[in-house]
Design a protein that fits this description.
Radius of gyration: 18 Å
GO molecular function: ATP binding; ATP hydrolysis activity; phosphate transmembrane transporter activity
Keywords: ATP-binding, Nucleotide-binding, Translocase, Transport
CATH architecture of the domain at 11-101 and 176-260: 3-Layer(aba) Sandwich
Distance between the termini: 42 Å
Bound molecules: adenosine-5'-triphosphate
InterPro entries: AAA+_ATPase, ABC_transporter-like_ATP-bd, ABC_transporter-like_CS, P-loop_NTPase, PstB-like
Protein name: Phosphate ABC transporter ATP-binding protein
Pfam families: ABC_tran
Order of helices and strands: EEEHEEHEHHHHEHEHEEHH
Length: about 260
Amino acid sequence: MHHDVSGLAELRAEEITAWFGNHKVLDRVSLTMPAGGITALIGPSGCGKSTFLRILNRMHELVPSAQLAGQVLLDGEDIYDPDKRLIDARRSIGMVFQKPNPFPAMSIRENVLAGLKLTGTTASKSAKAALVEECLIKGGLWNEVKDRLDAPGGGLSGGQQQRLCIARSLAVKPRVLLMDEPCSALDPTSTRVIEETMLELAREVTIVIVTHNMQQAARVSDTCAFFLAAQGTPGVIVEHGDTKAMFSHPRDERTADYVHGRFG
Ligand SMILES: Nc1ncnc2c1ncn2[C@@H]1O[C@H](COP(=O)(O)OP(=O)(O)OP(=O)(O)O)[C@@H](O)[C@H]1O
């Protein structure tokens, strides 16, 4: 299959079912996350959004009791193909977490470059310097840190740390960036800066974001998927599609109730 590593990539989940032990938490969830778009995953707590996100870059299998059925296709290629290496899936599909997690004692520069070691990538000193600048610019942090690249990452504010984590994930040139409530630990100003960064990044990387903030989903996402797990049943997608349409004219009453803040 044609595989343009520099181009924008579509991520597609097909019939994903997930368990922790015998507890089924997702049931045959299918979703196409368009290339170069921002897809928001919304829904009440416990409906399986984070589990679904973790399945998209093979983090679910880190939990010993976790099981999975279905496929995840990056530009048509199954990331769970036994011939594919885990590290390749993780490099192509990066993740930013709820709580900023830079290496606190490492310098800002070393934080950005940290992923290169893990993926065994080597680069010259000047190539590394260029990469650090490029990723910090894309992460929306360059102007604030360019004069102190050797200061520890842990000395930055929460919002800056989160942008540092975004820059770090960009350094290995991912094709998809997964973000699990990336702003929930941040103040409104930092949140807006991250949202602007996301809108810029979407030109070159496909983004999937879990968010509890409906305004945020409306501001940043092109497409949206509403997850729901009815009492005692696994999570499913009730409705998905164009974000503006889903917020203004939801097809399902449960979506209407959720996006208007009537539950969850
Ligand atoms: N490591 C785990 N071991 C066992 N069960 C788990 C584990 N992680 C999640 N679950 C269960 O899977 C279900 C889905 O959880 P998940 O965190 O994916 O939901 P969520 O929609 O992301 O929730 P939230 O919005 O609160 O983060 C829940 O019933 C949860 O208790």
